[in-house]
């Protein structure tokens, strides 16, 4: 925005010059608010040495079509120098349906890979040593199912589950707010999430059990302050749920992870990341009494803001992505996905995906940003902005608390309507030209260059259905039925559902069958519309 006093995205006024007295008096006392990298309150980063020892994980989100096609893309990404995998699943998988169900029609393999059973999972990771790579899976309501399939395939490869590293998104609360792939009602979703925490603590201790996500709220229009406030409030709800179920905070909190967006408003984004770390450390220490330093560390993945990319003059997106990636790195991210410049149009082409990764590599290996930790520390501007974003986020978190916590606020439609209000304001500012989007409402060209997008093969659905028919013909149905019945009985009681679920998946029950078994006990969530 141009002219007059500038407002930050989070709403506070940005001063044209920051001076020492703009920084909160306390900020001048470093141990309490800024401190040392790797030390409470972790404002300067979670590790003492940060990127000087090891750059962030370059983790490009990818997956489309069949497991075979996605496997080929993962091999290309590894060859291009990516050092973490990130799986995108198609919508039927994310909603817990098989590819041959009526409701899946038209969506199989579209926004990610179609996974129906352990056989697809085996193909997905063919030739990838799961003991050596860390894998993130963007899966929420059926997170337990895909996690167990991953474990089963890793065990087939001879990998000890205790050594497996990776993350499941598993953040259903934000699905009710912004993303939409929920299945069960909140209470049952929280029980399943707690079961996952407990199972991972026992069996997969190096696995990050949840990726509490603000990214999708930001894509839906949330400001930076709203993004971190509602995400941290969801985090608090998960911690309360697990403690209420009898888990000790230091048993599961070290494996909670976060996921945020990074926009082109670089200074405010850096402030946002620093503020989020500080708030979380305090909450974990003061409200939940966590004592393990790892329980206090907010570790996060970042994806550059897809919502800021334009279909017009798509190459300009490379510049946006570079600025967004810089903000994430200045902000101390642990893992990063840089969007491809063509993502506003279609699934990324191979060339665009490679360029996106190259952007990270230039920052990591050609710039001097990995030479020192948190270079913005002590900047009057960034320290003052960190305080401002923190104050704005804490005010919103109090409003969530006043409504009874994240779940109660979701049921009242609070977070969703706050975000929609901001989204509406943003669109008005873009339409009115007050908010400049290069190539869209200013600096446009008369004729856009033609662009050939990547298309997903439409015959995938038939191929998946044929594979499912073959699987159902071959497997021992009695074994599957018995295992699913055991899962249903456990879901009715209080036992951990992941153990019978694993037995069903090993017997080749499908993703849809397992999710239907749980639906039969827990039902499905129907949102109450709030206007
Ligand atoms: C939009 C789209 C959609 O809607 O569909 C999506 O959602 S896409 C969403 C895609 N989501 C994702 O890709 C989420 C990715 N998330 C993650 O990778 C994780 O949750 C993460 C954020 C915690 C990052 O994990 P990571 O393994 O990559 O990185 P870490 O920071 O944990 O580092 C790996 C190991 O190296 C160690 N390590 C790293 N750096 C240092 C350092 N400087 N000094 C000492 N140790 C270090 C860590 O302690 C850790 O070991 P140790 O573990 O032993 O301590």
Automatic annotation (TrEMBL):
Keywords (A to Z) from UniProt: Isomerase
The enzyme's E.C. designation: 5.4.99.2
NCBIfam families the record matches: acid_CoA_mut_N
Lineage: Bacteria, Bacillati, Actinomycetota, Actinomycetes, Pseudonocardiales
Subunit composition and interactions: Heterodimer of an alpha and a beta chain.
InterPro entries from the UniProt entry: Cbl-dep_enz_cat, MeMalonylCoA_mutase_a/b_cat, MMCoA_mutase_a_cat
Domain of life: Bacteria
The protein, known as: Methylmalonyl-CoA mutase
Keyword Isomerase: yes
Entries under Gene3D superfamilies matching the protein: Methylmalonyl-CoA mutase
Methylmalonyl-CoA mutase alpha/beta chain catalytic domain segment(s): 9-523
Entry GO MF terms: cobalamin binding; methylmalonyl-CoA mutase activity
């Amino acid at each position: 925005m141009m002219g007059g006093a500038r407002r930050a995205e989070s709403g506070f006024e940005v001063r044209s010059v920051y001076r020492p007295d703009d920084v909160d008096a306390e900020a001048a006392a470093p141990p309490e608010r800024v401190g040392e990298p790797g030390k409470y309150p972790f404002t300067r980063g979670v590790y003492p040495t940060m990127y000087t020892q090891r750059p962030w994980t370059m983790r490009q989100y990818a997956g489309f079509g069949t497991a075979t096609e996605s496997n080929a893309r993962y091999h290309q990404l590894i060859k291009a120098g990516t050092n973490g995998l990130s799986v995108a699943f198609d919508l039927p998988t994310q909603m817990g349906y098989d590819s041959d169900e009526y409701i899946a029609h038209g969506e199989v393999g579209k926004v990610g890979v179609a996974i129906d059973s352990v056989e697809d999972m085996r193909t997905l990771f063919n030739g990838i040593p799961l003991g050596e790579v860390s894998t993130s899976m963007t899966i929420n309501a059926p997170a337990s199912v895909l996690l167990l399939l991953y474990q089963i395939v890793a065990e087939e490869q001879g990998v000890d589950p205790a050594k497996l590293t990776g993350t499941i998104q598993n953040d259903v609360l934000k699905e009710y707010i912004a993303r939409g792939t929920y299945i069960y009602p909140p209470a049952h979703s929280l029980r399943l999430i707690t079961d996952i925490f407990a199972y991972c603590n026992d069996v997969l201790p190096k696995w990050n059990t949840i990726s509490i996500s603000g990214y999708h709220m930001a894509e839906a229009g949330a400001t930076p302050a709203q993004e971190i406030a509602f995400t941290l409030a969801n985090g608090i709800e998960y911690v309360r749920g697990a403690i209420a179920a009898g888990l000790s905070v230091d048993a599961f909190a070290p494996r909670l992870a976060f996921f945020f967006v990074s926009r082109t408003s670089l200074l405010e984004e850096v402030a946002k990341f620093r503020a989020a770390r500080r708030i979380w450390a305090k909450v974990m220490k003061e409200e939940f009494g966590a004592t393990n330093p790892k329980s206090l560390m907010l570790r996060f993945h970042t994806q550059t803001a897809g919502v800021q990319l334009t279909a017009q003059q798509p190459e300009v997106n490379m510049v946006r992505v570079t600025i967004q990636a810089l903000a994430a790195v200045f902000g101390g991210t642990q893992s990063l996905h840089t969007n491809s410049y063509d993502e506003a149009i279609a699934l990324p082409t191979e060339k665009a995906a490679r360029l996106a990764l190259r952007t990270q590599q230039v920052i990591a290996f050609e710039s001097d940003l990995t030479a020192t930790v948190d270079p913005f520390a002590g900047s009057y501007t960034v320290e003052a902005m960190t305080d401002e974003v923190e104050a704005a986020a804490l005010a919103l978190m109090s409003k969530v608390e006043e409504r009874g916590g994240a779940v109660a606020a979701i049921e009242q439609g609070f977070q969703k309507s706050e975000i929609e209000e901001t989204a509406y304001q943003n669109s008005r500012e873009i339409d009115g030209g007050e908010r400049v989007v290069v190539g869209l409402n200013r600096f446009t060209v008369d004729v856009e260059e033609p662009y050939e997008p990547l298309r997903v093969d439409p015959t995938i659905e038939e191929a998946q259905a044929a594979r499912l028919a073959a699987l159902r013909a071959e497997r021992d149905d009695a074994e599957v039925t018995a295992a699913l019945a055991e899962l249903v009985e456990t879901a009715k009681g209080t036992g951990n559902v992941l153990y019978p679920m694993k037995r069903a998946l090993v017997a080749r029950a499908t993703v849809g069958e397992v999710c239907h078994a749980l639906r039969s006990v827990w039902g499905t969530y129907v949102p109450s519309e709030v206007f």
